Amino acid sequence: MKTANVTVPYFDLKAQYGLLRDEILEALDRVCQNASFILGEEAERFEQAFANYCEVKHCVALNSGTSALHLALLTGGIGAGDEVITTSNTFIATAEAIAYTGATPVFVDIEPGTANIDPAAIQSAITKRTRAIIPVHLYGRPCNIDAIMEIATRHRLLVIEDACQAHGARYAGNRVGGFGHAAAFSFYPGKNLGAYGEGGALTTNDDDVAAMARSLRSHGESTRYLHKYVGYNYRMDGFQAAVLNVKMKYLEQWTDKRQACAELYRHLLRNANVRLLEDPAGVECVYHLFAAYVENRDKVRAELEKLGVQTAVHYPRPVHLQEAFSYLEQGPGSLPFTERACEQVLSMPLFPEMTEEQVSYASHCLSEVAGNK
Q1: Helices (H) and strands (E) in the chain, counts
Q2: Of the candidates 139, 141, 161, which has an alpha carbon nearest to the alpha carbon of residue 65?
Q3: What is the band of 4 on the pLDDT scale with cuts at 50, 70, 90?
Q4: Alpha-carbon separation of residue 184 from 1, 155, 257 (angstroms)
Q5: What are the two backbone dihedrals, phi and then psi, of residue 71, each rounded to the nearest 5 degrees?
Q6: In a designed cystine with 69, which of 97, 196, 341, 355 is the match (CB 3.0 to 4.6 A)?
Q7: What is the DSSP letter of 157?
Q8: In this structure, are strands 58-62 and 104-108 parallel, antiparallel, or unpaired?
């Protein structure tokens, strides 16, 4: 099936840079001309633009999504002795941020249809030590926010959204990032809105949370050289803010292209022996990743590679089975849906510059390798 010159990359940041090069260089030069390398005007402009985009009152620019999760927890008073319920089907940073505070991550299972945290499992895991819930909008698909917020309200728990893969996603018409106490976004280069290095942001509708996060990101300062808290160096670089300001203008059209590619994948794979995730009513997924679930995942990936189709795996081992969290003694078999998903998941090529021909070729290759239903 493969011709000598057919290759579908998993992702192509170089193609995007080629389209934005002049704007990016102008923005970086502006930072140099102003010698505003840490936070500064570009960061302030980005904070306002991203807050408006997320339809929230505040955006606090940070150096990573991990830092945003950490500060979101700290501004909620989470610490030693507390438990925070979250999913194990995520990047380890979600759980690391909980551990940074001295609190204990409590991992619960997922809904097989969406791969997101299961609200019923959250309810079953609540104890007298539970203080917060961190739902992860995995792959850009919002969680069941109504159910999660109802549980949180009934038990007086904080909700901190891990929206690091979900820039612009909507639930019941509203953007993610403003439903709970605070939310965390990542601008790692491969994200839907990516910097040219590390970057992140905390969003919130709470004035006090925003003020504390701004202080904590800059060594706990209240004013210059006066420190209210023992803080951190979590500030965003001016260069990263400048890049993000350029890219913000294109985020909506990039999202449209991602969604169009995902819809074409769905159509072309309708008869293939693969399982695709559901988009429940009222949920608008922004498709940071397009996940397909297959038997013999590693063999399928190898065959696709031979055909020129590059793939990735998010994530091959759930967090509760990582050595770093072995002290929790939550071993194999404890989260069956999560563990099964991690054995089968395959991330197909998806990026805004992808052509219909590339989606078509990748789909036909996957159908050929996995077979038909």
Answers
A1: 12, 15
A2: 161
A3: very low
A4: 43, 22, 24
A5: -70, -35
A6: 97
A7: -
A8: unpaired
Q: CA 196 to CA 198: how far, in whole Å?
A: 7
Chain mean pLDDT for the chain: 96
How far is C-alpha 171 from the chain's CA centre? Answer: 15
Question: Which tokens hold the place of 213?
Answer: 């996060």
Q: Which residue, among 214, 190, 172, 141, has the nearest Cα to 16 in the 3D structure?
A: 190
Q: CA dihedral defined by 149, 319, 111, 158, rounded to 10 degrees?
A: 0
| Mean pLDDT across 253-261 | 98
Instruction: Round to whole Å and give the CA distance between 17 and 13.
Output: 6
**Is there a contact between 51 and 57 (Cβ–Cβ < 8 Å)?**
yes
Under 8 Å between Cβ of 62 and 235: yes
Residue that the structure tokens 């293939």 belong to: 272
Residue 115 token pair: 């791969």
Is omega for the bond preceding 315 within 30 degrees of 0, making it cis? yes
| Structural contact between residues 188 and 195, judged by C-beta atoms closer than 8 angstroms | yes
